[in-house]
Structure formats: C-alpha cells, structure tokens
Input
Amino acid sequence: MGKRVLVVGAVALGSKAACRLKRLEPDAEVLLIDQDEHISYGGCGIPYYVSGDVADASELQSTSFHMLRDERFFKDCKDIDVLTRTRVTAINRKGKTIDIVRQDGSKDSLAYDKLVIGTGSRVRDLAINGQNLKGIFSVGSLRDAIAIKSTIAAGQAGTAVVVGGGFIGLEMAEALADMWGIETTVVEIADQIMPGFVGPEMAHMAQQHMEGQGVSFRLGERVIRFEGEDGTVARVVTDKESLEADLVIIAAGIVPNGELAADAGLEVGWNGGIVVDAHMRTTDPDIYAGGDCVLVANALTGKPGYYPLGSLSNRQGRVIGDNLAGKESVSPPVVGSFVVKLFETCLCGAGLTLKRALEEGFDAVSVRMCQLDRAHFYPTKELMYLELVVDRKTRQILGIQGSGSKGDATVGRINAVAALLPRKPVVEDISNMEFAYSPPFSSAMDIVNALGNVADNLLDGRMHPIGCEEFAEKWEAIQKGDICLIDCRARADAKVYEEKYPAFWKGIPQDELLQRLDELPEGKPLVLICNTGVRSYEAQLNLRAKGHTDNVTVFGGVAMLKHWGMDI
Output
C-alpha cells in the first residue's frame, strides 16, 4: 500500500486533488471526508438550479456522462474512500492524525502521511437581529439551494430581498425575478453593485439592465434587522426604510473556513485564509490546502488575496495532486478573472479596477469605449462595452472589465487579456494583440485592439475625454448654454437631438467641422459627442490642430450614455 492521504473537504478542491493523485499514484490510500451529505458538486451552478435552468439538484453533482458523484462513484470509479456527514474537529500535527466526529456522535482518530485541507468557505455572518427567522436563507451549500427552491416552488414567496450586490446576490436576484416572477429587491451597503470588481460606470450599466428586467436596488443602505410574523420573515429593515419580504437571501460575501488550520498552528492571513506557497503547501510541509479556504498571491500586486472561484479550486486541486505524487507543480499568481450572467447581458473582468489600482499605489487611469462585437456590415451584431485600467508611467495594463449582450464574445475578450496580465503587458501589447478575424466573429480592428489604441491616445496626450458620470455632471451647464455641445455624427443622426434640444444641441458632422469653424461659439468650452466616440475624437484632433483646445470628447458617445442609463 502507498502513502495514506486524508482530504478534508470533498467539493471542488478536495475531489480534484484526490482524483489527480490516484491517477498518478494508484497505490495511494486516499480518504475524502466531508461534513455534508452532498459532495463534488458544482457550487457555481446553484443559482441556475434555483432558477430552474438546471432542473434537478443531482445534475450539479453529476459527471458530463451522467454519473452521480457520490460515495459509490468515488469508490467504484476512482478507488477513493469517502466519509460524508463527518466533521473533522482537530489536526494533530505532531502525531500526524486528525480527530473526527460522525453524524451518530461517534468519534475517531485517523492517521495520515499527507493531509489536504479543502474546507471551503461560508457565508459571512451579519449578526443581524432576526436573521434566524423562517424564510431567511444563505447560499452556502447545495442543501441551502434545495431548501430555497422548495420554498419558492411551494408558493411561499411573492416578494424577496437579496442582501448583497455581488456575484451570488445578483445571480440569485435574476433567478428569483426572471424564472419565478418574484418581486425582488437587492440591498447593497456600497454605493454600487459588484464593489471591488468593476468600476462605477460598468456597475451602473449592469444595474440599469437589471432594473429594466424588474429588479429593484437599494444602494448605500445597511440592513439593521429582520422582522417577522409567527416566526416567519415579513420585513427587512434598513437604515433608511422597511422592505416587505416573504423570502430573504443573504449573499453579503463569504469568509474562508480556516479555523481548523489556525487551531493546528498553521499560518493564516488577514481574513483567516490559510497561507500557502506556490506548491499549495501550508507552513507544514506535510499539509496542503487550496480552494476557498486559502490566500494566494495576486499577479499584479504580489500581495496575498482571496479568490473563491470554482475554476481556480479545480486548477489548484490538480497542482496538489501532482505534488502529493512527487510531480513538482506550482499554482501561479492569479488575476481574479470573473464573469456573472445578468439576464441577457454579462459583466466580467480580470485584474484591478481603477479604484483598487489607485489604492495599491499605481498612477492609474482608465479608458472606456464601446464598439460592435463583429464587423459593422455583418447583419447580426451588438455593441460591447469595455474598460481598461493602465498605469500612466509604465503603460502597464492593470485590469479590464466588460459588459455585452453576446456573453461568449465579451468573455472571450476578457479572457484574452487576462492571460496576458501576469506577464505585465503594456498598452502596445493590447493594441497589437492578435485575434482570429472573420466578419461573423469580430472586426478587422478588434475592440480590444481599439481599446488599447484609446489608452495610447490618452497617455500620449492626444485624447481629452470625459466619462458618463462627468457628462451627467456637465448636463445642467450644457442645458443652460454655459457649455456648447457639438454632435459630430451625420446630419440624420444628430437631427433628432437638435429638434429635441434646439437651444444647446448643435450638429456639425466631423467631416464638415474644419469648414464650419466659424459656427463655434467664442469663449465657451465644447463637449464633443458622436455615437461611440470615434468621430468626436477625430473632431477633437481637428479642433486642437486649429488652436481650439477647450474641448472634451465623451467616452463611448451616445451609445454608452444610453447604456449607462442617462435619458437624453
């Protein structure tokens, strides 16, 4: 018999590590231990089970060839023993044993040669008065998902409040509103949804889209208590209002389950996550850890960060399996790539937001743009919206975020840049990045290349732009006539706005601008706008070449303003 390996936690990380080890070292004795009855399931699929997109919970626990990944599957197909409904209470490093308690209360001590910790995470405890009322759920396990869906299917929820505007909160809000028609409100303590993951413009665009689908939002509000009737939740009280609710989903972030490691004397970090090296080893060389319970290095800052992502857990599990079998493998620093589906659109990104980059000490700036996701002459095409974060001094690319209705196309662009981020690419690398081109799939100058070019123009001082929020701030001054707005589109496009706003909206097509300079008002700043920002930038160059420097161009033009939610 080979080495004895115990794996604590049998969802993503633990299952992958165990299976990889057995493939490389078939004579290893491997035991998976989990305190739940459900193991090796796709936790990221939970919102889609709740929505009904995934019909049965067993599908989240099944292989692609429809085998249920339960105790029997692991024993018969993988030669891996499994203990479910069993809690590990202590790690005794000196004696190399763990203490366990089974569901029936019986206790035991198990010896190991190597130990893997994959204890995952749990929903943050908000410690709010009334949070134990019936009808209040978190989304921490498959068992939670089954309970939520059972409540909804029983017709017990007409109104719902989701606490938290991050990944899980937004996905659950979509599931409740879209498939079940539940009147849904998201309460987020920050001033935007997806705080820390996207900038305010992208967040506002996503929020506008969800509001169009019937989801309400309360930003900058803190839940202070839950109130109920007959032991069941009826209201969510914030610091600003009271919201009716038959169902409450708490999705206000997660924290790593690092206590078992900490109690054993292993090093944990700033949020209680387990500290590991590139090989996924803890501070004890015989103990590995990975997944949602660990901290790993960020590729851009070098600092330990927390990235509870199912894809990362699976990759780390393979690395751990390699190292257990003596095959030296490392898990590289991460950039934190993500995507979330929001009805007919998606929100995705990788690397640092502008706010985070500034907090980390970079001299950062961001550029935004929109462009068609394929050739302009191809009959089926949609606008895609991207934001790129760059460092002024070094021109290094620090992050990218995107939104688009063709989710696969948008995610593909984000993934391409994400793959480069650990190598510290600069603007020119993005401008010249090679993309496969055909009109049904992209433009000859892909939107990512164009985004790099926009960054180049900004950093070199050729472009002087404003974003959606800055335009909104100038809107009153524009209406008063203190700022002159020049629409650089073709006459037919500008005519609608000129007729609506005859006092201040003036159309001068970019190709006529140099011949009509005498029509520009003297002594007034100009805001130049077109449909997506290309012609207004050209107009800006034309004007500055003639000495007219008091002007700005609008990132993404009218299209981005509309997507952002400004009613013009």
